[in-house]
Amino acid sequence: MATGTIISLGLYFVVMLGIGLFAYRQTNTDVEGYMLGGRQLGPAVTALSAGASDMSGWMLMGLPGAMYVQGISAGWIAIGLVIGAFANYILVAPRLRVFTEVAKNSITLPDYFENRFADNTRILRIIASVVIVIFFTLYTSSGVVAGGKLFESSFNLSYEMGLYVTAGVVVTYTLIGGFMAVSMTDFVQGCIMFISLVMVPIVVVMELGGLGASVDSLKSIDPALFDPFMNAETGTAISVIGMISLASWGLGYFGQPHIIVRFMAIRSVKDVPAARNIGMSWMIVSIIGALMTGLFGLAYVTGNGNTIDPETVFIYLSQILFHPLIGGFLLAAILAAIMSTISSQLLVTSSSLTEDFYKAFLRRDASDKELVIAGRISVVVVAAVAIYLAYDRDSTILTLVSNAWAGFGAAFGPLVLFSLFKRSMTRRAALGGMVVGAITVLFWIYFPVEIQGQRLSEWMYEIVPGFILSSLTIMILSKSGTPRDGVEDTFDRFQQQLKEHG
């Protein structure tokens, strides 16, 4: 590996650790400070932190790879994600910020569910926490694996060394600075990703002789690359069901704990519009850059007579077209995407273990200092389990991880939305909607049934039936019962607070 690349990556790691130390000195020592940054995130940090923790390595590897082989038909998923993210800012962000504070200053999503529906049985908290801990531990392991493979393929280090370097840096700044460190590093990582996804496609197009020459080159490879209704990889038309499935990824935003926790932590409801404008601008430009990297990267790679793994097109271009110092910066963008998601998942899982298990069932009178220590121990434990799973690449259960977005979206998405808009929603409806959504997704993935020769999950993305059935369950069960005492009064206080915040 070139010296310039090593220098760039070394500076990146130093900056991340430095931010963790700075956040430690700035953050309150109580549990709200460690897990929500004292609800003091500014709009820019909120927006880029949510975006960076959302996008992960798929933004720089998965999405360019899909565009590389499928052509612009891969853009349907991007359209769905943009619409979903925008709707999340409009429908969820301001309401969740206010309601979590009204509902006994809830710090985690399971905490909010319990307080919102006055669930003294704690069943809502338990089930939601179990879902979060299991899926996010696997999610974290998947991110650690991505880091290990990146170090193995690009830096000539062992896979195992890559696991420890990736996890070690993330754990260190998360452990020291908590939520504020995670959010501030996400902000920097989001900036790195943004610059990289603007820079790479522009340079590729210039190398190909301009936009017109680039388009002509792609048309000579396969005209179907420019057909939005044709999968260029398979040469088959995309059905209406297929387009709905791709676009329905946007439904998942309403139920992703590591994203919506940023809305709980923003400084004020009045900051939400600014965060939305910043976040959506960042997302749209970054997604277009990722798509163009894959599309024009195909023209460059093919034109030079090479064959590569489509998901490594960003890595390939960064090493071929740029000086080692810049190439190191671009590789740091991939690490930024991986690390920003791992850190968010670590902290959400740690928060759930601390608030929803340790405090709720073991030490109800625990001091803030004790809870912060428990949170830091949880970060280390979850990271250790993730590394252990990552040692055996086959044990990461990639199928489950790839469907975790659908699982969270169907289990938590309708529940979050209805809880913020439906005054008479009942605890039984909340529990039923969450369980039905999760079970539907699992059934859709694993039940051996075929439609038109395709398995259910191949025929339609599982979040669609999961989201629909969860929503129907909530509506039906809310009509057949009455909310617990105080639930509607809490909702009325929330509405009043929301009006006061404008």
TrEMBL record:
Entry membrane topology: Multi-pass membrane protein
GO cellular component: plasma membrane
Subcellular location: Cell inner membrane; Cell membrane
Pfam families: SSF
Transmembrane feature ranges: 6-24, 67-91, 123-141, 161-182, 194-215, 235-254, 275-301, 313-338, 371-391, 397-417, 429-447, 459-477
GO BP terms: proline transport
Catalytic activity: L-proline(in) + Na(+)(in) = L-proline(out) + Na(+)(out)
Annotated GO MF terms: L-proline transmembrane transporter activity; proline:sodium symporter activity; sodium ion binding
Keywords: Amino-acid transport, Cell inner membrane, Cell membrane, Ion transport, Membrane, Sodium, Sodium transport, Symport, Transmembrane, Transmembrane helix, Transport
Domain of life: Bacteria
InterPro entries in alphabetical order: Na/Glc_symporter_sf, Na/Pro_symporter, Na/solute_symporter, Sodium:Solute_Symporter
Membrane found in the keyword field: yes
General function of this protein: Catalyzes the sodium-dependent uptake of extracellular L-proline.
Protein name: Sodium/proline symporter
